[in-house]
């Protein structure tokens, strides 16, 4: 069998009793990073032999592991944190195992997505998970633009180095939204920063952001972003008399006044409805 074993995302106490048993009983553990997993195994006195299975070698090394399972061995696969395959390696191995008729058994556990949502204070009955946002600016903005009309709560992973730039893009593209930055979940310096996008930007303005980031954005509501074209046009016209305001300034002001997304306001401004 192939066991897909979720491991702690920070606090080693978050491993399940079942996961400990499976890791002890398996014939071999395939790990995204054996050096990282060794710390977990040492904490629970697990001496099962390990093999490395990270992104760059997953396709190459999945075949031999499949062969071992076909011959009767049980393999447990773990990523560095959380559930394998969720923004982590594992998909190729799982896919090949299914094709080979091997039973794939999930061993659930800690999840950054669910942990962040559960304490976010944002609606969680419906949500969509997008994984890591692209590192390149234009690709990131494209993803955010396509998410602007999404009404479900959205969950992303983001690097601490790119977080501030990402928040500015969210403000410009999605308008005023509630959001949560969940940082270093389950670790000593765990932190939730909640509020409007402007609140969060202000909170982080003078800080050097560190640690792993889960970003949760409220979906678009009927009261935010659904203002009529005529209302937007009227407010743009009101501001047009101020020679010190550029079009960009007027769009920003209208977004702040109405809660509508800047994308929608720009579209009205640039498609001949306003000049």
Number of helices: 11
How far apart the termini lie comes to: 65 Å
Q: Numbering strands along the chain, what is their spatial order in the largest sheet?
A: 3-2-4-1-5
- Give the overall pLDDT as a whole number: 90
Largest sheet properties: 5 strands, parallel
CATH architectural grouping of the largest domain: 3-Layer(aba) Sandwich
Describe this structure in words.
This protein has 275 residues and is α/β, with parallel strands linked by helices. It has three domains: 2-110, Cobalt-precorrin-4 Transmethylase, domain 1 (3-Layer(aba) Sandwich); 113-217, 2-Layer Sandwich (Methyltransferase, Cobalt-precorrin-4 Transmethylase, Domain 2), CATH 3.30.950; 229-270, no CATH class. The chain is 40% helix and 17% strand. The chain has helices at 17-25, 34-43, 58-70, 91-99, 112-118, 137-147, 163-174, 197-204, 229-239, 247-258, 262-270; strands at 2-5, 28-31, 50-52, 75-78, 104-107, 127-132, 153-158, 178-183, 191-196, 213-217. The strands form two sheets. A five-stranded parallel sheet has the order 3-2-4-1-5, with helices on both faces. The chain is elongated.
Secondary-structure map:
Elements: E1 2-5, H1 17-25, E2 28-31, H2 34-43, E3 50-52, H3 58-70, E4 75-78, H4 91-99, E5 104-107, H5 112-118, E6 127-132, H6 137-147, E7 153-158, H7 163-174, E8 178-183, E9 191-196, H8 197-204, E10 213-217, H9 229-239, H10 247-258, H11 262-270
Helix pairs in contact: 3-4, 6-7, 7-8, 9-10, 10-11
What would the keywords be for this entry?
Methyltransferase, Cobalt-precorrin-4 Transmethylase, Domain 2, Cobalt-precorrin-4 Transmethylase, domain 1, 3 domains, alpha/beta
